[in-house]
């Protein structure tokens, strides 16, 4: 913890010094030269118009527009930093190049008949993720059950283990996994571990990759914290992917820490979920991992050597489409999948989300679905993990409840699941929260399911959880004056939270 605090302070000071340095120089010139003040004013107007013209989502560009209008100097600097950090970052350029390379491996099997299925056309034709039929899908309503199966499958590993998680924390869960990883590495299994450096700031030492290397485990900390890295530190790897021998893949909301399997209690009972896939769809998770890994270490010239050829045909069980979300392309895949499910629902849409920080498109879609008779239910935490973020989430409850959406607080504790299900036929399970960071800044992943047997288990989990939750009334959703003002101010900085 001391090391984490030290690293955090150094990074924060580095960023603060950059901001102060930029402001000092600009304020000096502006106070001395009137023409520069005028130019900044004109520039801020032009940048505001450019944002209005090109913005994909005004809810999230509004804070920048306001800063440009009210504080031309600061707003212009913020705009330039945000724009340049993505365009000029060496790391993000490498990731984008490697990510684009993955599509040559994600080829649609022409034997799968999907021509008339408009519900999956977006993912296959525009987002570029193939649909698979031959899969065995298991849904886990709680982290403990997923963890037990992860251990069983890890013990079977013979060729490779690919491990990519946002948070890894030392404790019973990680120690149990690490023991197997170390043993497998000694036996010649290719073991690769990737974790997010910010996600593990308070849990792992900065030299932890060296510790794993001594055990024969290859390790990459994603997007190392750097006091001069700038805004690119916002782009985190929030994925949860475990691939074993190309045969089986795990994903879902579960990170690698003891609270996720309720070995310890932090915010009451931790309600999370997981998904296991055995079958052809594992290939997409394999490619996702290899694309990210090779953006750091170009070691795999051909991903095909990691593709498992299933000797026996797995019984067809609906459609399965693993998909990735990246802040580096033009598609907002995660949000588009969610909106498509809501907009095409006929009977019901049930949702798990830990953070309800949504834009106007999402608010309108949810309310419109409820108004046309769709049973829309959302389960959020009853006990928050971050109080300010929770207060911000509550600000979106009022317009939804007034629109006919039913919102439930999970009374026993914290909901960390990210799940949508609709009409007994469609679901998505993954890592993507309903907030700006997940939808626009983070690298994420999800799994779209259609007519898969496991969907009935997802529905049961939602309904069982709702039974343990408290429905928020219209009176409860209406905040008092002081709180409503505070929530309004928080909304202005929502993209930063």
Total beta strands: 17
Q: Which strand order do you get reading across the main beta sheet?
A: 4-3-2-5-6-8-1-9-16-15-14-10-11-12-17
The overall average pLDDT, rounded, is 88
- Roughly how many Å is the radius of gyration? 23 Å
Which class do the helix and strand fractions yield?
alpha/beta
CATH homologous superfamily descriptor of the largest domain: Endonuclease Chain A
How many DSSP H or I helices?
A: 18
* Residue windows where pLDDT falls under 50 for at least 5 positions: none
Provide the CATH architecture of the largest domain. Answer: 2-Layer Sandwich
Taken as a percent bin, the fraction of beta residues is 15-25%
Stated plainly, the CATH topology of the largest domain is called Endonuclease, Chain A
Largest sheet: 15 strands, mixed
The first-to-last residue Cα distance is 22 Å
What is the CATH level 1 assignment of the largest domain? Alpha Beta
Silhouette: globular
* Overall domain count: 3
- Helical fraction: 40-55%
């Amino acid at each position: 913890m001391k090391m984490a605090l030290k690293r955090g302070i150094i990074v924060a000071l580095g960023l603060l010094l950059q901001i102060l340095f930029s402001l000092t120089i600009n304020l000096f010139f502006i106070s001395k030269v009137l023409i520069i003040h005028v130019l900044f004013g004109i520039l801020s107007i032009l940048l505001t118009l450019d944002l209005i013209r090109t913005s994909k989502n005004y809810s999230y560009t509004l804070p920048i527009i306001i800063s440009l209008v009210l504080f031309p100097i600061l707003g212009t600097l913020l705009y330039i930093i945000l724009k340049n950090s993505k365009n000029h970052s060496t790391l993000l350029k490498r990731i984008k190049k490697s990510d684009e390379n993955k599509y040559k491996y994600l080829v649609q099997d022409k034997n799968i008949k999907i021509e008339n299925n408009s519900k999956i056309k977006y993912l296959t034709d525009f987002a570029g993720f193939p649909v698979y039929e031959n899969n065995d899908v298991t849904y886990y309503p709680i982290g403990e059950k997923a963890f037990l199966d992860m251990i069983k499958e890890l013990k079977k590993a013979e060729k490779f283990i690919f491990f990519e998680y946002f948070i890894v924390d030392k404790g019973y869960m990680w120690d149990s996994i690490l023991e197997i990883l170390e043993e497998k590495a000694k036996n010649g299994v290719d073991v690769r571990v990737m974790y997010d450096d910010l996600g593990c700031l308070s849990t792992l030492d900065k030299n932890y990759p060296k510790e794993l290397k001594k055990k024969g485990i290859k390790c990459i900390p994603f997007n190392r914290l750097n006091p001069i890295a700038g805004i690119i530190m916002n782009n985190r790897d929030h994925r949860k992917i475990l691939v074993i021998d190309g045969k089986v893949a795990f994903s879902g909301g579960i990170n690698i820490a003891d609270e996720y399997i309720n070995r310890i209690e932090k915010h009451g009972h931790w309600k999370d979920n997981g998904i296991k896939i055995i079958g052809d769809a594992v290939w997409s998770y394999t490619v996702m991992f290899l694309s990210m890994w090779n953006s750091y270490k170009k070691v795999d010239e051909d991903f095909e050597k990691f593709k498992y050829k299933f000797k026996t045909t797995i019984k067809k069980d609906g459609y399965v489409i693993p998909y990735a979300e990246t802040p580096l392309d033009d598609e907002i895949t995660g949000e588009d999948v969610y909106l498509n499910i809501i907009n095409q629902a006929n009977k019901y849409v049930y949702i798990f989300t830990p953070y309800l920080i949504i834009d106007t498109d999402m608010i309108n879609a949810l309310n419109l679905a409820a108004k046309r008779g769709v049973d829309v239910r959302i389960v959020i935490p009853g006990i928050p993990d971050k109080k300010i973020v929770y207060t911000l989430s509550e600000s979106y409850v009022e317009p939804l409840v007034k629109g006919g959406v039913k919102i439930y607080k999970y009374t026993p504790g914290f909901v960390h699941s990210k799940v949508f299900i609709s009409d007994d036929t469609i679901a998505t399970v993954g890592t993507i929260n309903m907030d700006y960071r997940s939808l626009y800044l983070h690298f994420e992943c999800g799994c779209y399911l259609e007519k898969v047997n496991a969907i009935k288990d997802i529905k049961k989990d939602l309904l069982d959880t709702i039974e343990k939750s408290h429905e928020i009334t219209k009176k409860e959703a209406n905040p008092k004056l002081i709180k409503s003002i505070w929530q309004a101010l928080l909304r202005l900085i929502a993209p930063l939270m």
